[in-house]
């Protein structure tokens, strides 16, 4: 539970670090809650077929869990040492019924989850989540009426091949859990398809691309952004008096649409137009995407990921929209055609302005400078109208971020670099060859380098800014769910989750080396050991908790997966500034170096899972007193002198 020493109060930004109200350096080590918040409750997961016809009447109350279960889950997270939640919600959850029709009951429910998190010592920042725009276009986020407002008929997306949707392609009657019609981790290919690209292009640059396209008298860009930001404000109104709610994420993993691409550009490899590695899926040009929406048949190269190299490569061609199904609603026109981007001709079309998505009379169009930059400021202004000290957690497209694309400048004050990072090979191929010895050190060093790229996104910001890795993690269905088979066969030892624990441990080693804040992806309360279900969304299965591991409700570790990998010591609050921290899982030793302040207090989380018999502590370089609360798993050090101080911990039986 929260303590009286203010550990769960408001935080401030001090250059690259967070500070609490006592001026201590804070490390946020949290988790995303949770993966199934992307879908309605109780039966809205992608493990069930749906045509989305109920999109205006669904409810998200119960995501991430029913209120009756909240304290149990939150207590488990606090026991595991997490002090922060990236708490998911979606635009759809709040405004699914129609424009301006907010789900007050859901908003009250979400606010109550926030309030309860504070009672367990957990900071919260609000994450408005989306993936490839919406559930209706293969992901999550925006409500269905947003497509209708623009003029797209999402009921035709699958038939016209303009979106890759599990509920439309997966054969739920088949006993096969993995199916070629919906390859694992294929949902990201929707970034290449026009249902997704149209919405992002209009969201970021509708005023420049389609200045005459208005909805209810407002340009489409302003209409969409104002509706989205209006939902953020609805949450802000309900949580503004909770000091442990520290801020808002701007928008999860935003898409780019067609912005920056020539009309006939085909992204099949990193190049001068787009230096980022291409995603899987059809390599459509913007013009071909527009023609698909008009009901034209298009043939394009198809890219898949090579399991040997990890790179996406052309693997033949694919024919799309063989049924010649138009997607624009009756009586609605394509706004890009109306703006003079292209025209139909014969069985196809031609570009009238090859640089339509790249420039206009006002100059070049840059999605980061002209789209995301102003949007970040708009979000900051809107939420800070309700509480001035909220932090802004900003992120760009993760592929661009992991490639070193800088954040737009200038950012609003008190911004946090909240980019994402994954071991891409482990994520996409769902296998991890457990390294040993020098090979393990090499993997750890690679993680340190890759995280450095994401951390480096903040370098251009004047005065620096903290970095919090908003998402990282591993699939638990590695090797076709080998751990699940072992569990079902009765195995319970460390070996069941051996590869998972090693992978997570190496990731946290790298986080420690860079002193990074982070929120692990993810904790899904409804998760199952089932290759179809997983986290309840597009067969992803990255949850550190599963109902199938919950055998003893009295044991706070029960339900956990690879707990030894992610539950480990770290300095939650340092009485000064942390210089370095390292933990060796094999020996149980940790070492913390601090530039301490006289009389200040440092709190180190020391978990019983690694220290069942307590911890032996030694200090050097500065007088200090310490006390270990075994029940709270908390080591408290009071610094008697200012200056460099080293704190070492070990198991009592360590040689």
Automatic annotation (TrEMBL):
Domain Glycoside hydrolase family 5 C-terminal positions: 568-645
Annotated GO biological process: carbohydrate derivative catabolic process; lipid catabolic process; polysaccharide catabolic process
InterPro entries to which the protein is assigned, alphabetical: GH, GH5_C, Glyco_hydro_5, Glyco_hydro_b, Glycosphingolipid_Hydrolases
UniProt-recorded name of the protein: Uncharacterized protein
Phylogenetic placement of the source organism: Bacteria, Pseudomonadati, Pseudomonadota, Alphaproteobacteria, Sphingomonadales
Domain Glycoside hydrolase family: 69-133
Family: Belongs to the glycosyl hydrolase 5 (cellulase A) family.
Molecular-function GO term, any one: hydrolase activity, hydrolyzing O-glycosyl compounds
Organism: Sphingopyxis lindanitolerans
Pfam families in alphabetical order: Cellulase, Glyco_hydro_5_C
Keyword line: Glycosidase, Hydrolase
